[in-house]
Write a structure and sequence with these properties.
The protein is mainly α and 285 residues long. It is 78% helix and 0% strand.
Length: 285
Amino acid sequence: MRHSSSRRVLPGFGLSLGYALVYLSLLVLIPLGGLVARSTQLSPDQFWDIATSSRALAAYKVSFGCALLAAVVNAVFGLIVAWVLVRYEFFGKKLVDAFVDLPFALPTAVAGITLTTLYANTGWVGRFLEPLGIKVAFTPLGIVVALIFIGIPFVVRTVQPVIEDIEAEVEEAAATLGATRWQTFTRVLFPALFPALLTGFTLAFARAVGEYGSVIFIAGNMPMVSEITPLLIISKLEQYDLPGAIVLAVVMLVISFVLLLTINLLQWWTANRHSGRHVDAGAQA
Protein backbone atom coordinates (compact mmCIF):
# COMPACT_ATOMS: atom_id res chain seq x y z
CA MET A 1 0.00 0.00 0.00
CA ARG A 2 1.48 3.31 -1.05
CA HIS A 3 1.42 6.15 1.43
CA SER A 4 0.24 9.38 -0.09
CA SER A 5 2.64 12.25 0.36
CA SER A 6 1.55 14.80 2.93
CA ARG A 7 0.05 17.88 1.38
CA ARG A 8 1.26 21.22 2.54
CA VAL A 9 -0.77 24.39 2.76
CA LEU A 10 2.00 26.31 0.97
CA PRO A 11 3.39 24.14 -1.87
CA GLY A 12 6.87 24.58 -3.26
CA PHE A 13 9.22 24.60 -0.28
CA GLY A 14 12.23 25.59 -2.35
CA LEU A 15 10.47 28.56 -3.94
CA SER A 16 8.96 29.71 -0.63
CA LEU A 17 12.33 29.44 1.11
CA GLY A 18 13.99 31.39 -1.68
CA TYR A 19 11.47 34.22 -1.42
CA ALA A 20 11.86 34.25 2.38
CA LEU A 21 15.67 34.46 2.18
CA VAL A 22 15.58 37.20 -0.46
CA TYR A 23 13.03 39.19 1.55
CA LEU A 24 15.05 38.80 4.76
CA SER A 25 18.29 39.71 2.99
CA LEU A 26 16.92 42.86 1.38
CA LEU A 27 15.30 44.16 4.56
CA VAL A 28 17.72 43.00 7.26
CA LEU A 29 20.93 41.28 6.29
CA ILE A 30 22.17 43.53 3.47
CA PRO A 31 21.54 46.86 5.31
CA LEU A 32 23.16 45.56 8.50
CA GLY A 33 26.02 44.04 6.53
CA GLY A 34 26.55 47.36 4.75
CA LEU A 35 26.63 49.15 8.09
CA VAL A 36 29.27 46.80 9.45
CA ALA A 37 31.28 47.01 6.21
CA ARG A 38 31.22 50.81 6.34
CA SER A 39 32.63 50.74 9.88
CA THR A 40 35.67 48.76 8.66
CA GLN A 41 36.86 51.86 6.80
CA LEU A 42 37.99 53.17 10.16
CA SER A 43 41.18 51.93 11.78
CA PRO A 44 40.80 49.79 14.92
CA ASP A 45 42.15 52.64 17.05
CA GLN A 46 39.67 55.12 15.59
CA PHE A 47 36.80 52.70 16.06
CA TRP A 48 37.81 52.01 19.66
CA ASP A 49 38.24 55.69 20.54
CA ILE A 50 34.75 56.55 19.27
CA ALA A 51 33.07 53.49 20.76
CA THR A 52 34.62 53.94 24.21
CA SER A 53 34.41 57.70 24.59
CA SER A 54 33.04 58.81 27.95
CA ARG A 55 29.84 60.18 26.39
CA ALA A 56 29.26 56.97 24.43
CA LEU A 57 29.79 54.76 27.49
CA ALA A 58 27.35 56.86 29.49
CA ALA A 59 24.79 56.57 26.67
CA TYR A 60 25.21 52.76 26.54
CA LYS A 61 24.67 52.59 30.28
CA VAL A 62 21.49 54.65 30.11
CA SER A 63 20.06 52.81 27.08
CA PHE A 64 20.70 49.24 28.14
CA GLY A 65 20.30 49.81 31.88
CA CYS A 66 16.92 51.51 31.54
CA ALA A 67 15.77 48.98 28.93
CA LEU A 68 16.71 46.04 31.15
CA LEU A 69 15.03 47.54 34.23
CA ALA A 70 11.86 48.36 32.27
CA ALA A 71 11.74 44.85 30.79
CA VAL A 72 12.04 43.27 34.25
CA VAL A 73 9.23 45.46 35.61
CA ASN A 74 7.09 44.63 32.59
CA ALA A 75 7.74 40.91 33.06
CA VAL A 76 6.46 41.03 36.63
CA PHE A 77 3.48 43.30 36.20
CA GLY A 78 2.67 42.08 32.69
CA LEU A 79 2.27 38.58 34.12
CA ILE A 80 -0.07 39.93 36.81
CA VAL A 81 -2.14 41.88 34.28
CA ALA A 82 -2.41 38.88 31.96
CA TRP A 83 -3.44 36.63 34.86
CA VAL A 84 -6.15 39.04 35.99
CA LEU A 85 -7.52 39.43 32.47
CA VAL A 86 -7.73 35.67 31.96
CA ARG A 87 -8.79 34.33 35.34
CA TYR A 88 -11.15 37.02 36.71
CA GLU A 89 -14.38 38.62 35.58
CA PHE A 90 -15.00 42.24 36.58
CA PHE A 91 -16.75 45.35 35.38
CA GLY A 92 -14.80 47.11 32.63
CA LYS A 93 -12.68 44.08 31.75
CA LYS A 94 -13.06 44.65 28.00
CA LEU A 95 -12.00 48.26 28.43
CA VAL A 96 -8.91 47.30 30.44
CA ASP A 97 -8.04 44.68 27.83
CA ALA A 98 -8.28 47.32 25.11
CA PHE A 99 -6.09 49.73 27.09
CA VAL A 100 -3.29 47.14 27.05
CA ASP A 101 -2.95 47.59 23.29
CA LEU A 102 -2.98 51.39 23.48
CA PRO A 103 0.84 51.75 23.35
CA PHE A 104 0.78 49.81 20.06
CA ALA A 105 -1.57 52.31 18.40
CA LEU A 106 -0.40 55.50 20.08
CA PRO A 107 2.36 57.42 18.24
CA THR A 108 5.52 57.36 20.33
CA ALA A 109 5.84 61.15 20.26
CA VAL A 110 2.33 61.50 21.68
CA ALA A 111 3.21 59.01 24.41
CA GLY A 112 6.35 60.97 25.27
CA ILE A 113 4.57 64.31 25.46
CA THR A 114 1.76 62.81 27.54
CA LEU A 115 4.13 61.20 30.04
CA THR A 116 6.19 64.37 30.30
CA THR A 117 3.06 66.40 31.01
CA LEU A 118 1.98 63.95 33.71
CA TYR A 119 5.34 63.58 35.47
CA ALA A 120 6.71 67.12 35.21
CA ASN A 121 6.98 69.08 38.44
CA THR A 122 3.68 70.80 37.66
CA GLY A 123 2.00 67.71 36.19
CA TRP A 124 -0.91 65.77 37.66
CA VAL A 125 1.41 63.09 39.05
CA GLY A 126 4.69 64.96 39.32
CA ARG A 127 3.31 67.61 41.68
CA PHE A 128 2.64 64.91 44.28
CA LEU A 129 6.01 63.20 43.80
CA GLU A 130 8.13 66.33 44.02
CA PRO A 131 7.49 66.93 47.77
CA LEU A 132 8.67 63.35 48.35
CA GLY A 133 11.95 64.09 46.59
CA ILE A 134 11.05 61.93 43.59
CA LYS A 135 11.75 63.52 40.22
CA VAL A 136 10.64 61.53 37.18
CA ALA A 137 10.62 63.88 34.20
CA PHE A 138 14.01 64.76 32.71
CA THR A 139 15.81 61.97 34.60
CA PRO A 140 16.74 58.33 33.84
CA LEU A 141 13.71 57.36 35.93
CA GLY A 142 11.54 59.08 33.33
CA ILE A 143 13.17 56.96 30.63
CA VAL A 144 12.27 53.79 32.56
CA VAL A 145 8.65 54.98 32.91
CA ALA A 146 8.40 55.62 29.16
CA LEU A 147 9.93 52.23 28.33
CA ILE A 148 7.56 50.47 30.71
CA PHE A 149 4.64 52.16 28.99
CA ILE A 150 5.63 51.10 25.50
CA GLY A 151 6.78 47.59 26.49
CA ILE A 152 4.06 46.11 28.68
CA PRO A 153 1.77 44.99 25.79
CA PHE A 154 4.51 42.65 24.55
CA VAL A 155 4.53 40.73 27.83
CA VAL A 156 0.76 40.69 28.34
CA ARG A 157 -0.09 39.55 24.82
CA THR A 158 2.63 36.88 24.86
CA VAL A 159 1.72 35.37 28.24
CA GLN A 160 -2.07 35.69 27.96
CA PRO A 161 -2.67 32.80 25.50
CA VAL A 162 -0.53 30.46 27.62
CA ILE A 163 -2.54 31.27 30.74
CA GLU A 164 -5.74 30.61 28.78
CA ASP A 165 -4.45 27.15 27.88
CA ILE A 166 -3.77 26.25 31.53
CA GLU A 167 -6.97 24.80 32.92
CA ALA A 168 -8.12 25.80 36.38
CA GLU A 169 -8.37 22.10 37.26
CA VAL A 170 -4.57 21.98 37.35
CA GLU A 171 -4.53 24.40 40.29
CA GLU A 172 -7.35 22.52 41.98
CA ALA A 173 -5.49 19.23 41.61
CA ALA A 174 -2.37 20.74 43.16
CA ALA A 175 -4.40 22.10 46.07
CA THR A 176 -6.04 18.69 46.54
CA LEU A 177 -2.60 17.11 46.81
CA GLY A 178 -1.74 19.51 49.63
CA ALA A 179 0.27 22.13 47.76
CA THR A 180 0.17 25.69 49.03
CA ARG A 181 -0.59 28.58 46.68
CA TRP A 182 3.08 29.45 46.48
CA GLN A 183 4.04 25.84 45.70
CA THR A 184 1.31 25.66 43.07
CA PHE A 185 2.63 28.79 41.40
CA THR A 186 6.35 27.96 41.57
CA ARG A 187 6.15 24.24 40.74
CA VAL A 188 3.09 23.94 38.51
CA LEU A 189 2.19 27.26 36.89
CA PHE A 190 5.48 29.13 36.55
CA PRO A 191 7.38 26.37 34.67
CA ALA A 192 4.63 26.36 32.05
CA LEU A 193 4.56 30.17 31.86
CA PHE A 194 8.29 30.82 31.92
CA PRO A 195 9.09 30.27 28.19
CA ALA A 196 6.30 32.66 27.14
CA LEU A 197 7.28 35.12 29.87
CA LEU A 198 10.88 35.05 28.68
CA THR A 199 9.69 35.69 25.12
CA GLY A 200 7.65 38.68 26.26
CA PHE A 201 10.63 39.95 28.26
CA THR A 202 12.84 39.66 25.16
CA LEU A 203 10.37 41.54 22.96
CA ALA A 204 9.92 44.29 25.55
CA PHE A 205 13.69 44.60 26.02
CA ALA A 206 14.37 44.72 22.27
CA ARG A 207 11.72 47.39 21.76
CA ALA A 208 13.04 49.42 24.69
CA VAL A 209 16.65 49.39 23.47
CA GLY A 210 15.69 50.97 20.16
CA GLU A 211 12.95 53.29 21.45
CA TYR A 212 13.40 56.95 20.55
CA GLY A 213 10.19 58.95 20.14
CA SER A 214 8.65 58.48 23.57
CA VAL A 215 11.98 58.84 25.39
CA ILE A 216 13.43 62.08 24.07
CA PHE A 217 10.59 64.18 25.50
CA ILE A 218 10.76 62.86 29.06
CA ALA A 219 14.50 62.12 29.29
CA GLY A 220 15.83 65.65 29.35
CA ASN A 221 18.61 64.45 27.01
CA MET A 222 21.45 65.64 29.23
CA PRO A 223 24.83 64.22 28.12
CA MET A 224 26.39 61.84 30.66
CA VAL A 225 23.10 61.77 32.63
CA SER A 226 19.97 60.98 30.61
CA GLU A 227 21.13 60.75 27.00
CA ILE A 228 20.25 57.53 25.18
CA THR A 229 22.42 56.07 22.45
CA PRO A 230 19.90 56.55 19.60
CA LEU A 231 19.77 60.25 20.44
CA LEU A 232 23.58 60.43 20.46
CA ILE A 233 23.58 58.81 17.00
CA ILE A 234 21.12 61.43 15.73
CA SER A 235 23.26 64.18 17.26
CA LYS A 236 26.33 62.94 15.42
CA LEU A 237 24.39 62.78 12.15
CA GLU A 238 23.23 66.36 12.65
CA GLN A 239 26.88 67.35 13.17
CA TYR A 240 27.80 65.49 9.94
CA ASP A 241 29.87 63.03 11.98
CA LEU A 242 28.89 60.01 9.93
CA PRO A 243 31.78 57.76 11.09
CA GLY A 244 30.88 58.41 14.73
CA ALA A 245 27.22 57.58 14.11
CA ILE A 246 28.16 54.38 12.25
CA VAL A 247 30.45 53.21 15.07
CA LEU A 248 27.78 53.75 17.71
CA ALA A 249 25.22 51.97 15.55
CA VAL A 250 27.53 48.97 15.11
CA VAL A 251 28.20 48.79 18.84
CA MET A 252 24.46 48.89 19.56
CA LEU A 253 23.92 46.18 16.94
CA VAL A 254 26.57 43.87 18.39
CA ILE A 255 25.49 44.30 22.02
CA SER A 256 21.81 43.85 21.16
CA PHE A 257 22.56 40.75 19.09
CA VAL A 258 24.62 39.15 21.86
CA LEU A 259 21.99 39.87 24.50
CA LEU A 260 19.10 38.62 22.37
CA LEU A 261 21.06 35.51 21.37
CA THR A 262 21.77 34.77 25.03
CA ILE A 263 18.11 35.19 25.96
CA ASN A 264 16.98 33.01 23.05
CA LEU A 265 19.44 30.28 24.04
CA LEU A 266 18.11 30.44 27.59
CA GLN A 267 14.58 30.20 26.26
CA TRP A 268 15.49 27.19 24.10
CA TRP A 269 17.18 25.47 27.04
CA THR A 270 14.21 26.13 29.30
CA ALA A 271 11.70 24.84 26.74
CA ASN A 272 13.71 21.65 26.16
CA ARG A 273 14.12 21.09 29.88
CA HIS A 274 10.39 21.57 30.45
CA SER A 275 9.48 19.18 27.63
CA GLY A 276 12.02 16.67 28.93
CA ARG A 277 10.34 16.69 32.32
CA HIS A 278 7.00 15.94 30.66
CA VAL A 279 8.54 13.00 28.78
CA ASP A 280 10.06 11.61 31.97
CA ALA A 281 6.79 12.01 33.83
CA GLY A 282 4.92 10.21 31.05
CA ALA A 283 7.45 7.37 31.05
CA GLN A 284 7.15 6.94 34.80
CA ALA A 285 3.38 6.93 34.55
